[in-house]
Each structure stands twice: as structure tokens, then as C-alpha cells.
Design a protein that fits this description.
338 residues; D-Maltodextrin-Binding Protein, domain 2; 5-stranded mixed β-sheet; 4-stranded antiparallel β-sheet
């Protein structure tokens, strides 16, 4: 007669548990691994930073809220491995930092390809009234007077805070186009400076400002309706190898087409520590899959500017609204780790 061995159920349970381990590991390839994410000092990048952070958490990685860093300390830190990554590299704008990070970090994937524009804008009423098409027009006395909000005899322009990549190009333009005696660059906190400019515009004053996309300004001051992109007199960049990319066709709201913006269009990209990337193929696969529509970043930036600052909730909602695409990205990451 067949006698049941009482140890068999225990053995079967053990085998089932063992067979489940690879599946668990594959579902959470980041289990037990910490990631230190950084985010930039410009808050328009915080939304997509939080989306990536939550996606990495879904892969099992331990990712605390991002730390805020200026460009130079981030690129130094990511090369050394003190910081794992950020998803706010702007290239070619940040190419000046490549000698700093290239020995220990690399670009992987793209948040948005080619859609990050930079340039100078003025209110449309001023463009129509004074016939302004270029920064060169700010050498005219009547134009300077129309944009002089502090009484120093120069046109006031919202520029970039010290340490931002755009500051380098703007400062170069001020010298290249001989505008130091004609334009006063406001280099305080960008969000506060732009909020002040927006209030001035709503009060009937003329405004001149630098901006980039994606940015909440494009929702509050719509190019082609409220404001227009103006051109530079001629393309003049610190790195003239990028000159061809500084004139673009089809820029909505530009004074001309093609539009001589004076800044090359940028890719917004993740920059990751290379050693970490080699040890975590799931992260590289995820970064190569993810893309976030600029329109969604515009919308969040505008909501944030209007007072909705719960970025964690906004990112979670975006992930759920795009769950079908997100699950595909996560599946690709898990497959890379198996």
C-alpha cells in the first residue's frame, strides 16, 4: 500500500516559494537599491522629475524626494556618484558641463526631443506700436523708454539667475550685440521676476523677457496672442558650431519664419552615473522608453503657477492617466533586468 510521506507537502511548498523568487525579482529589479535623484533650481522641471521618481519606485528602487541642485554641483556630483541622476539635462545648452561629467556619467534617453526652445519675447502691443522685430531695436530711445520700469534709462529684461546655463548665453548676447548700455538684465529668482513681469503686463506695461519651453509662461502669456518671440540681430553663440540650430522654422508666435531665436533648440535628457547604470540595466531601459509630452508639462507648470503645488499628486495622476504606456515602459525595464 502506498504510504504518503508527510514531508512532501513541505517540500512542495518550498519548491513553489523558490520558483516564485525570479518572478518577484523581475517585478522589482530595484529592490534593495537606493537612488539619489536631483532636480534643478528651475521649478518647471520638477513635475517630470517626480514622474520618473515614481516610475523608479514602481520598479522597487528606494528613491527619496529629489534634492535641488544648481547645474555645476549636479554635474560634478553625478560624475563622482554622490548623486545618481537627474532628468533635467538641457543639451546642447549644458554641453559646457560635459568635461565635468563625461568621465563618470552619461546621457540616456530623452524626456523631450528638440522641443525645448529658448529666446526673447515682448508683449505683442509693443511689437505692433514700435515695430520691434529684434533685440537691435532696444538701442532706440523710444523703445528703451517704453520698457524702462525702474527709471534707469534702460529697458528691463527678465533674464536668468547666476549659475543657470542660459545665463551664459544671455551674457554673451549682451556683449556680442553691444546691449549693455541699453538693456538691464534682471537676474533675481526667475519665477518671482516673471510673476512681477506678468503683473506689469496685466497693468498695461510693456515687458521684455527671456524664457524657455516647457514653461508656465507660455500658458499665461501665449505666443502669437499676448506676446511674440523676437529675433537676435545675428546668431552669435559661445559655441558657433551650434549656430545652424539657433534659427528654427515654424515657431508659433515668432515675428518671422524662420525665426532667428539665437538659442539652439534643446533636448531635455536624463544624465546618469555610469557605474550605477552598468549595475542597473532596468534603469537604462526605462530611461530609453519614457517620453513626456511637452503639452502635459506646460499644463502642470501653469497649474503650479496658479497655486497647485502638490507635484507628487500631479505626477501620480499623470501616471494613472497614462497607465497603458507606463506599463509598457515598466515591462521593458523588467525585461532588461531578467
Amino acid at each position: 500500500m502506498f504510504r504518503l510521506d508527510k514531508s512532501l507537502p513541505l517540500l512542495a511548498a518550498a519548491l513553489l516559494a523558490t520558483s516564485a523568487l525570479p518572478a518577484i525579482a523581475q517585478d522589482s529589479p530595484g529592490a534593495g537599491t537606493a537612488i539619489t535623484m536631483a532636480q534643478p533650481t528651475w521649478d518647471t522641471g520638477w513635475f517630470h522629475t517626480e514622474i520618473y521618481r515614481q516610475l523608479l519606485q514602481e520598479l522597487g528602487y528606494d528613491v527619496a524626494p529629489a534634492i535641488t541642485l544648481d547645474n555645476p554641483p549636479f554635474y560634478q556630483s553625478v560624475a563622482m556618484g554622490d548623486v545618481t541622476m537627474w532628468v533635467d539635462g538641457w543639451f546642447p545648452l549644458h554641453s559646457t558641463y560635459e568635461p565635468i561629467f563625461s568621465s563618470g556619467a552619461e546621457i540616456v534617453g530623452a524626456v523631450a526631443k528638440g522641443g525645448a526652445l529658448e529666446g526673447y519675447l515682448i508683449d505683442k502691443a509693443a511689437a505692433d506700436e514700435f515695430g520691434i522685430t529684434s533685440l537691435e531695436d532696444f538701442k532706440r530711445d523710444e523703445v528703451k523708454a517704453a520698457f524702462d520700469r525702474n527709471g534707469d534709462g534702460k529697458a528691463d529684461m527678465v533674464a536668468c539667475p547666476p549659475g543657470w546655463g542660459c545665463e551664459i548665453n544671455i551674457e554673451h548676447h549682451m556683449d556680442a550685440y553691444e546691449l549693455r548700455d541699453h538693456i538691464n538684465t534682471i537676474k533675481a529668482g526667475y519665477s518671482a521676476s516673471m510673476a512681477d513681469a506678468l503683473a506689469a503686463y496685466k497693468g498695461g506695461e510693456h515687458i521684455l523677457y527671456y524664457t524657455w519651453t516647457p514653461n508656465w509662461t507660455a500658458n499665461q502669456l501665449v505666443p502669437g496672442k499676448d506676446v511674440v518671440w523676437i529675433e537676435v540681430p545675428e546668431v552669435d553663440l559661445p559655441d558657433m558650431s551650434l549656430a545652424d540650430a539657433a534659427t528654427l522654422e515654424g515657431v508659433e508666435g515668432c515675428i518671422n519664419d524662420p525665426c532667428k531665436l539665437g538659442f539652439p533648440a534643446n533636448d531635455i535628457v536624463p544624465v546618469v552615473n555610469s557605474e550605477f547604470l552598468a549595475d542597473n540595466p532596468a534603469v537604462g531601459a526605462l530611461l530609453n522608453e519614457v517620453a513626456i509630452p511637452l503639452e502635459d508639462i506646460f499644463a502642470q507648470n501653469s497649474a503650479m503657477n496658479d497655486g497647485d503645488t502638490d507635484i507628487e499628486a500631479q505626477a501620480a495622476a499623470w501616471i494613472e492617466e497614462n497607465r497603458a504606456a507606463v506599463d509598457g515602459w515598466l515591462d521593458a525595464a523588467r525585461a532588461a533586468a531578467s
